[in-house]
């Protein structure tokens, strides 16, 4: 039986409490994406599994990213932070992160951290980055999700002439 090593805040969902479609689906334009996503990773390691622990970590993060539970631009926890949370050596988590980066699932931005990479081509990647920037700016301005969505729709209407 798999042993659940994830305890504490790293096991909770990162989305805001309360209702609303964007609370359940952060990929909606203007959805809430917190700065520290370590609480989104629900990783269970199986000590009896034939796969090495780094491979289990790699597979879980890849599944979360490709399944949309970790949206593009989502900041992953530090290697040391995740290693501590899972009770693993830092080099084990670093090996998983290197494998994920080689697969194009995540990207490291130097001292800024490690983020879920955009899938698809250049257009989709730039569009995702623009959406992340807009969402962060709207949040800093104190706009609620409905106001941010309305502003985005109006800007799109003006740009596309519809």
From TrEMBL:
Annotated ranges, domain HTH gntR-type: 51-119
Q: Does the keyword field hold Transcription regulation? A: yes
Q: What is the lineage of its organism?
A: Bacteria, Bacillati, Actinomycetota, Actinomycetes, Kitasatosporales
Kindly give the Pfam families that the UniProt entry links to this protein: GntR
Name of protein? GntR family transcriptional regulator
From which organism does this entry originate?
Answer: Streptomyces smyrnaeus
> What keywords appear on the UniProt entry?
DNA-binding, Transcription, Transcription regulation
């Amino acid at each position: 039986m798999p042993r659940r090593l994830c305890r504490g805040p790293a096991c909770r969902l990162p989305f805001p409490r309360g209702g609303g479609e964007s609370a359940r689906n952060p990929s909606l334009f203007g959805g809430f994406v917190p700065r520290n996503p370590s609480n989104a990773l629900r990783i269970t390691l199986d000590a009896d599994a034939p796969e090495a622990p780094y491979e289990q970590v790699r597979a879980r993060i890849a599944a979360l990213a490709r399944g949309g539970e970790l949206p593009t631009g989502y900041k992953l926890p530090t290697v040391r932070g995740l290693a501590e949370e899972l009770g693993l050596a830092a080099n084990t988590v670093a090996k998983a992160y290197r494998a994920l980066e080689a697969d194009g699932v995540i990207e490291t931005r130097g001292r800024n951290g490690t983020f879920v990479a955009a899938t698809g081509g250049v257009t989709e990647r730039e569009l995702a980055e623009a959406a992340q920037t807009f969402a962060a700016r709207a949040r800093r301005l104190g706009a609620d999700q409905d106001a941010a969505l309305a502003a985005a729709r109006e800007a799109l209407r003006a740009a596309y002439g519809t």
